[in-house]
């Protein structure tokens, strides 16, 4: 007799085999979500502390050109220490580039299945791929989203490798995203009390992976999530979201809505930035709600070490760990990603394994 685990694995394999993703399920006319998408009640709690949801708190907003540099650095320091996330405006990327990026992601995911499925893959080494749920066979409950990822090793990717339907949009966006990452690396270095070029010098944010998510409208949004609670396995993540909303950050045991702001980008500290800063900057847990409206579209750019340093061990920065000593052992990015992928988005932090 087949076990419940076998049943769920077969259901996931059948879903994977369609190469149509969550959007394919919705297009088929279903009115109830498949069982594998149903999350346990603890995942779906609106707030761990019931009394906190009434508080009107907002993720910090940083104007990158609105004041003196020392004030900008101070704002980034406070946000990185207290929130692990902030929104930025006046970042230098034109609004039309952001709008076209959102529309390019939409165009890709709304192509006919037969066109889209040619890009479908679960191979980690494939530089451009479309898939639904990177941790499909690992996580207990599946998330209500599809994705396309583009890997920019050392910040480069031949535009001809991108799907034609979104090629120009991604090319224009990523050219500017690489520049913004350089600017943020300088500001974060200064916010840590280090020399301006410190993070660039240690080469921890040169490779980028752009992951473009498509969250279709959901017939039973109270039973599932667009993304389970997790923190990012990056040094830094820069996120573009559309106007629908649904992203939440866990702040002081409270889920806070990250309100969409026109032409703003969201910056969040990744696990490995928390590790090298010896807990000075915090890697924040966040999630995405499912919704009856949609699709919601976002583009997350994750920054990692250069290819030459993907196996180089990084540990707490000496200047930040002299007083109390290092809180983590050294770990290279390749090892960290292997552990992160094997664990899946299970709501638990991957950092704890590497704490001394």
UniProtKB/TrEMBL annotation:
InterPro entries assigned: DIOX_N, IPNS-like_FE2OG_OXY, IPNS-like_sf, Oxoglu/Fe-dep_dioxygenase_dom
Keywords, in A-Z order: Iron, Metal-binding, Oxidoreductase, Vitamin C
Domain Fe2OG dioxygenase: start-end pairs: 201-305
Highest taxon above the source species: Eukaryota
Pfam family for this entry, one: 2OG-FeII_Oxy
Sample GO molecular function, one term: metal ion binding
Alphabetical list of PANTHER family matching this protein: DEACETOXYVINDOLINE 4-HYDROXYLASE, OXIDOREDUCTASE, 2OG-FE II OXYGENASE FAMILY PROTEIN
Family under the similarity heading: Belongs to the iron/ascorbate-dependent oxidoreductase family.
UniProt protein name: Fe2OG dioxygenase domain-containing protein
């Amino acid at each position: 007799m087949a076990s419940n685990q076998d049943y769920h694995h077969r259901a996931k394999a059948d879903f994977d085999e369609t190469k149509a993703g969550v959007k394919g399920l919705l297009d088929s006319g279903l009115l109830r979500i498949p069982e594998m998408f149903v999350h346990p009640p603890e995942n779906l709690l609106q707030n761990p502390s019931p009394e906190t949801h009434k508080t009107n708190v907002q993720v910090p907003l940083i104007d990158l050109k609105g004041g003196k540099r020392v004030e900008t650095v101070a704002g980034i320091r406070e946000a990185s220490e207290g929130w692990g996330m902030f929104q930025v405006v006046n970042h230098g990327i034109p609004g039309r580039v952001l709008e076209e990026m959102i529309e390019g992601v939409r165009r890709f995911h709304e192509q006919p299945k037969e066109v889209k499925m040619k890009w479908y893959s679960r191979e980690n080494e494939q530089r451009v791929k479309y898939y639904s749920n990177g941790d499909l066979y690992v996580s207990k409950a599946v998330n209500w989203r599809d994705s396309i990822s583009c890997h920019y090793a050392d910040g480069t990717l031949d535009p001809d490798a991108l799907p034609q339907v979104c090629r120009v949009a991604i090319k224009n966006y990523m050219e500017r995203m690489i520049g913004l990452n350089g600017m943020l690396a300088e500001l974060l270095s200064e916010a840590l009390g280090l020399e301006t070029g410190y993070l660039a010098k240690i080469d921890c944010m040169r490779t980028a992976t752009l992951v473009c998510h498509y969250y279709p409208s959901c017939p039973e949004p109270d039973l599932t999530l667009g993304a389970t609670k997790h923190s990012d396995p990056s040094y830094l993540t820069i996120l573009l979201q559309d106007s629908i909303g649904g992203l939440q950050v866990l702040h002081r045991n409270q889920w806070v809505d990250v309100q969409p702001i026109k032409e703003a980008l969201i910056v969040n500290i990744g696990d490995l930035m928390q590790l090298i800063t010896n807990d000075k900057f915090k890697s924040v847990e966040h999630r995405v709600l499912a919704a009856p409206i949609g699709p919601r579209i976002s583009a997350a750019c994750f920054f990692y070490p250069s290819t030459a340093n993907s196996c180089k061990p990084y540990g707490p920065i000496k200047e930040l760990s002299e007083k109390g000593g290092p809180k983590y052992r050294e770990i290279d990015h390749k090892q960290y990603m292997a552990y992160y992928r094997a664990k899946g988005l299970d709501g638990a932090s991957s950092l704890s394994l590497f704490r001394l």
